[in-house]
Amino acid sequence: MSHILVVDDDEDITTLLTQYLNRFGFTAHAASDGLSMRAQLAAQPMDLVVLDIMLPGTDGITLARELRARSQLPIIILTARANPYDCVLGLEMGADDYMGKPFEPRELVARIQTVLRRAAATGASAGGAARGSAADAVVRFDGWTLHGMERHLISPQGMVVPLSNAEFRLLCTFLRRPRCVLGRDQLMEEARGRAMDMLDRSIDLLVSRLRHKLADDSRDPAIIKTVRGAGYLFNSQTVQGPVAWLR
Question: What digits encode the pLDDT tens for the residues 187-212?
């Protein structure tokens, strides 16, 4: 049984969600701020955190960064903000998904289930015999090296370039389909693990951030090319390694 921690200062929301999640077989816990969140995490191992951005004291973005600095605990961000930059910032800080307020509790349950499945699959593949050694998770392209287990890049100059969860999934999606035009909907579905029905600009922002990590000139990109009216094309000429295992 998965333990879910709901962090929100709105008592009506935490009461509703904890009761609703319990109906779907989860054990739900509630916290109203960063202090009570830390206390809950110290008292009980959690499998996923549903985290509101707007919290008293320490905000949700900062708490997501804090969580990700010490663990790979899955995080779903809740936000009442409509600005795509806020959502992308949450993903950059390590969140696995986000939902805008107001939301349907059943949809949140579906996203929790998806994120937990993805986390379980990643953990199983990282530790399973089929994966072999850490070297098996290394993919090379155009002088760059992606370490799938550590989730970072090594530049052609030997510099370590850390990736957020969202950047890693986007790059993996591109590496599995080099020199193919991928539409925004497809990228959002595969890179985020769900189809987004809002904030279409967010995938463009993630592409921009990934280009920056790859030192790809945004004015004349050579690696991630924009195909007008269609989407993006990952223009790598050589992709070597077990790309099918990248998730």
Answer: 877 765 543 444 445 788 889 989 99
List pLDDT tens digits, range 56-70.
999 988 898 888 878
Question: How, if at all, do strands 239-240 and 138-141 pair?
Answer: antiparallel
Q: How far is CA 179 from the centre of its chain?
A: 24
Name residues whose C-beta falls within 8 Å of residue 90's C-beta, 6 or more positions apart in sequence.
53, 60, 61, 64, 77, 79, 98
Q: Which two tokens stand for residue 152?
A: 């970072």
Question: What's the CATH fold of domain 133-245?
Answer: Arc Repressor Mutant, subunit A (1.10.10)
Superfamily (CATH H level) for 3-127 = Response regulator (3.40.50.2300)
Quote the pLDDT of residue 92.
Answer: 67
How big is the CA angle at 238 (ends 128 and 181), to the nearest 5 degrees?
A: 90
Write out the DSSP string of 54-121.
S-SSS-HHHHHHHHHHH----EEEEE----HHHHHHHHHTT-SEEEESS--HHHHHHHHHHHHHHHHH
Pairing, β 144-147 against β 138-141 = antiparallel
Give the global pTM. 0.58
Delimit the domains of the chain by residue range: 3-127, 133-245
Mean pLDDT across 80-92: 65
**pLDDT computed for residue 47 by the predictor:** 94
- Residue by residue, DSSP assigns 12-73 as HHHHHHHHHHHHTT-EEEEESSHHHHHHHHHHS--SEEEEESS-SSS-HHHHHHHHHHH---
